[in-house]
Amino acid sequence: MKKIHDGAVSFRRKDFEAHKSLFGDLSKTQKPHSVFIGCSDSRLVPSLITSTLPGELFIIRSVANIIPPYKKGVNYPAISAAIEYAILALEITNIIVCGHSNCGGCGALYKSEEQMKGLPHTNLWLELSRPVKNKVMQMIPNATEAEREWMTEQMNVVQQISHLLTYPYVLERYNNNKLTIYGWYYVIETGEIYNYDVDKGYFELIDDPQ
Ligand SMILES: [Zn+2]
Questions:
Q1: What is the CA(23)–ligand 1 centre distance, in A?
Q2: Domain ranges of the chain
Q3: Distance from the alpha carbon of residue 68 to the mean position of ligand 1, in angstroms
Q4: How far is the CA of 22 from the centre of ligand 1 (A)?
Q5: pLDDT-based confidence at residue 79 (cuts at 50, 70, 90)
Q6: What is the whole-number distance in angstroms between the Cα of residue 13 and the centre of ligand 1?
Q7: Distance of alpha carbon 61 from alpha carbon 79, whole angstroms
Q8: What kind of architecture, by CATH, is found in domain 31-205?
Q9: Could you report the per-residue pLDDT of 84-123, keeping only the tens digit for each?
């Protein structure tokens, strides 16, 4: 914890001072331009990999960047509440769903009930991505573990976009071209981010225009 305490002091003295006017502007209001929905993994740092400052991204995180399909009457709809607030209250018009390499949540889809016995809530949550595992097993039944891993992580992003489109206000804005949805895949060891091309059906490296 000492590292974090020292970091809090260092932030106030250095980074805060360097961006003092920005924090002043942000003190009473936020107007983020994008919603970033990413995995809770410690290695995925949204502001770092997008070179954005405080106030730019409305960040929603969950295990394996899973978005539950729209459903009324859920007791504690944390992810749905955050999406609702971002789109209806803050009127944000871009959503990024970002998966990543070596995702423990995606990997856990392939573990047995016995192996997941000690993590009942995680196991229940991962039920939402079970169709991804089934699709991958059908598409590449003889794949290596590495191939299965990246295919699962990428297809999971596509699956979560389909869940996002079950939210009526998201679908309506998306169909009326008032909301853009991106599917991203971040590779930890190279720093590369791939964007899902809906028309081509695969992920392409985000790079400078040729
Ligand atoms: Zn993950």
A1: 30
A2: 1-28, 31-205
A3: 16
A4: 31
A5: very high
A6: 33
A7: 8
A8: 3-Layer(aba) Sandwich (3.40)
A9: 999 999 999 999 999 999 999 999 999 999 999 999 999 9
